[in-house]
Structure formats: C-alpha cells, structure tokens
Amino acid sequence: MKDKQSKYEVPAILRADLILRTLTRQSSPMSSSDLQKACELPRSTLYLLLDSLEQRRWIEKVDDGYIIGINLYSLGMAYLRQDRLQAVFRMKAQQFVEEHNEVVQLAMLDGSDVVYLGREDAKRPVRLVSDIGSRLPAHACALGKVLLAQMKDDEVRDLLPEKLEPITSRTIASRQQLLNELARVRRDGLGLDLEEVAAGLNCFAAFIGRTHLGQSVAVSTSIPTDRLDATRSQKIQHAIVQLAKDIAQGIGR
C-alpha cells in the first residue's frame, strides 16, 4: 500500500509540506539558509516555493526569516469547525473548569503522536505543553494511552517500536510495558500520566469516541501533584470520565 501511495505523490507538495513542517517546529523566524540546510532542497527550488507560499500567506516573512502565516492558521482552524466538536467541547469543558478549577484539553491521535485540538484554561496557572496544534508522543501521555487503547495490540505493535523514547524518568520506555498499561486503560476507562511528560504534573484522560468525520478524540485534565490527594484524585478521575460522556452525548455519539 505504501508503494502505491508514494507513486502518486506530487514532488512540489511534498517539498512545500517539508518546509511548513520545519517551520512549525521553530519558536522564532527561520532564515532561508537555515531552511535550505534543514530541508536539503536546491536553492532555486526553495526560493520558488517560499515565494509561492508567501503569496498565499501560508508563510510570512519577518525580518530575515519565515514563520507560519495567518492563512495557514485559518485553514487549520476550519478543521475544528467541521463537526461541532469544538462548540460542544468548549461548553462542557467550561462547566468542568467552573466546578474543579483545572485545565481541560481535547486531542486526537495522528500516527504515534497526540495532537491537541482544544484547551479550556482554569483561573489558576499550570505549566503545560498543550497549545492547540502541538504534539506529544502518544505513549507518554494520558490522552495518548486512551487513544491507543482503542486499537488492537497488533496495531500498536505495528505503530510503535519496541523501545520508546522517554521524556522523564517515569515515562513508559518499552512497548510491552505500554501494552500492559493499555490493557488496564481498557478495563478502567481511564488514561493516566503520573509525571511521565513533566515532573510534578499528573494527567487523567478519558475517551470521547469518534466524531461524525470519523476522528477518535479524547479529553483530559492536568493537575500539579501538590494540588492532589487521594480523595481529590478520585473525584477528578470520575469527573473527567463523565466529561467525556457528556461531550460524546453532545456530538451525538
């Protein structure tokens, strides 16, 4: 199947995609010379693509570098408006935040990564890496575990290597250990991240279901360990599972 798909790839689109993906990983404007090194494209090809992307405002020039442009952002946001998911998420997540004063996140699985689609912030701060559009390795976070748990073990084996990249000392680092954890997730209906992405931060996640467009989505909350005890942890876990059910009902699932 892979060979059949690659046969029909359009080189210009592949190169434009490479440029855009490279820019999304940057926190500041990237020069054309650095882009050329990173993308390994001929200078003439690179400049033609940069000019075309800039004309469409998929990228924008800032000083001597390039950043992702406003029109690409608008196109991406259209993805979130297609099946009422965002509207239902915002309404239900606001209710969760009002009751528990903790952040809520919405995500889907893309390959071996979790992609964040939405976030509703609480009034008190928490250090997160879940900006809309950002990614995390699925094996490391609660959202990823819940989403991977919807797959068969053989599918997970095909997707992930035997050795998994750790983010902290607590991150699951072997595929078999992850499969054991996914069995628990399927049994309990709850994904856990106990300081596996960031020290001092616990995350609880639950599966929402598939949207009308067929995307599997999940919801989570992330809470510093110093704001949790056994009683509150249980309360939050029940609440995030209920939130997932409420969102599923709201989108007709």
Automatic annotation (TrEMBL):
Entry-linked Gene3D superfamilies: 3.30.450.40, Winged helix-like DNA-binding domain superfamily/Winged helix DNA-binding domain (1.10.10.10)
Pfam families associated with the record: HTH_IclR (PF09339), IclR_C (PF01614)
Domain IclR-ED, residue spans: 71-253
The keyword Transmembrane appears for this protein: no
GO BP, sorted A to Z: negative regulation of DNA-templated transcription
Keywords: DNA-binding, Transcription, Transcription regulation
Stored InterPro entries: GAF-like_dom_sf, HTH_MetabolicPath_Reg, Tscrpt_reg_IclR_C, Tscrpt_reg_IclR_N, WH-like_DNA-bd_sf, WH_DNA-bd_sf
A GO MF term: DNA binding
Superkingdom field: Bacteria
Domain HTH iclR-type: 10-70
Protein's name according to its UniProt entry: IclR family transcriptional regulator
Record organism: Paracandidimonas soli
